């Protein structure tokens, strides 16, 4: 119990040490380092609670949807933006606002959690 109380009272070094292992799965399964379509089924929940996924998908759809590339060396085999999105496992018809709503909800939930932690800390 003493170990837990020392950790909960707060130490910036401990917070920095545990931040990376907590955030890394969200990076990995949010689509930044791994194709979203190749995520194993048992990691699907991490994929859907990753806030990086929604921002990354919005960025990719914004940049690549309806993009026409000019390939002077191989004009017959030139991919367009939709093909590139499909290769990354991103639905090109994914709408902007559902992703924005999900990011907004993540922000609200994180603010509420931080506010609750602050109130809990002040009352001790």
- Proportion of strand residues: under 5%
**Main sheet attributes: strand count, strand direction, barrel closure:** none
**Radius of gyration based on Cα positions:** 20 Å
**Low confidence ranges:** none
Structural class: mainly alpha
Span between termini:
16 Å
Determine the fraction of residues in helical runs and give it as a percent range.
55-70%
Provide the succession of SSEs.
HHHHHH
Number of helices: 6
Global morphology: elongated
Count of DSSP E strands? 0
Instruction: Determine the mean pLDDT.
Output: 82
Tell me what you see in this structure.
This protein is mainly α and about 120 residues long. About 65% of the residues lie in helices and about 0% in strands. The longest helix is centred in the last third of the chain and has 28 residues. It starts with a helix and ends with a helix. About 10% of the residues are buried. The model has no long low-confidence stretch (mean pLDDT about 80).
What secondary-structure arrangement, pairings included, does this model have?
Layout: H1 2-8, H2 12-29, H3 44-48, H4 51-64, H5 81-87, H6 96-123
């Amino acid at each position: 119990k003493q170990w837990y109380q020392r950790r909960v009272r707060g130490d910036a070094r401990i917070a920095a040490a545990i931040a990376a292992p907590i955030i890394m799965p969200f990076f990995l399964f949010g689509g930044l380092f791994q194709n979203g379509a190749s995520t194993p089924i048992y990691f699907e929940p991490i994929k859907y609670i990753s806030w990086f996924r929604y921002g990354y998908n919005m960025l990719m759809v914004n940049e690549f949807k309806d993009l026409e590339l000019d390939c002077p060396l191989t004009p017959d085999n030139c991919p367009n933006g939709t093909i590139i999105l499909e290769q990354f496992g991103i639905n090109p018809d994914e709408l902007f606002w559902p992703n924005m709503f999900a990011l907004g909800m993540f922000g609200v939930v994180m603010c509420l959690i931080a506010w609750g932690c602050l109130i809990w800390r002040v009352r001790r």
